[in-house]
Amino acid sequence: MDKDFWLQLKEQFLNFVIEIGPEIIYAVISLILGIFLIRLIMNLLKRTLKKSRVELSLKTFVESLSVFLLYGLLIFIIGSILGIKTTSFIAVFGAAGIAVALALQGSLANFAGGVLILVFKPFKVGDLIHVNNNLGFVQKIDILYTRIKTFDGRMITMPNGNVSNSDVDNRTMEPYRRIDLNLKASFDANMDKLRQLITGALKKHPKLAKNMPVEVYLDEIGEYGIKLKARCWVASTDYWPVYWEQLKAVKNTLDQNGIEIPIPKRKVYQGDDSEKKR
After folding, report:
1. Topology of domain 176-256, CATH
2. What mean pLDDT value characterizes the chain?
3. The dihedral of CA 248, 252, 253, 254: what is its sign?
4. CB neighbours (10 Å) of residue 59?
5. Antiparallel, parallel or unpaired: β 215-221 and 169-170
6. Exposed (0-12), middle (13-18) or buried (19+): which is 93, by Cβ within 10 Å?
7. Which of 7, 18, 71, 117 has the greatest number of CB atoms lying within 10 Å of its CB?
8. pLDDT at 234 over 90
């Protein structure tokens, strides 16, 4: 009886292999060819996008989305080859989609955020942005995440959902940016002379924006001296280097002309011995 059982089991297995075997072979061949075609299509897509005038941020988004869609289509084709009916396949994918959607609500929000970023373009790859207390240059915008590189070399990955719902300070969107220098001088300093010296120092910089104002104002009369505000304009991409150089130039000019920066001072009065005895 045991021998008949194993013979019957062997016969059923052979029938199954004969019946389903060709579909499995076709599915494996389709999988190999599909992966090859996907890679070929992606290479062609990357070359086309590279030659086109499409923004870099949109290129990365299209590439990542295309990979997702192509592999989804490949799975659908393989399922059809294996005999899964289209309606059943759609039903399974629909149910799985609902389950995945419930489990990945944050990811769907990130995908929607990525679409909003590409549509409304608050920033693009290469821009210097400040968002969620992070300052850095945008390196990549994927379908789910945005990556920025900070000045100290850190790579920060932020969900697109959070970025699209946050205040984004894009510091390179405008061609020019104003430099504000907060300065101090003693009460004895002559305001007209100060304005002349500081304005002259600022105007010497070669990267100063042309036809843009250079201004020096008395901003506040403080407790230990006066406070001034000096302003000039530069290209947004040159902001930080020029900021530091202008600050140094003003400091050197004030030192050369004997203008001191005020420091807190306090006078102490000490009475004589006769006052102590009273």
Report:
1. Alpha-Beta Plaits (3.30.70)
2. 81
3. positive
4. 19
5. unpaired
6. middle
7. 117
8. yes
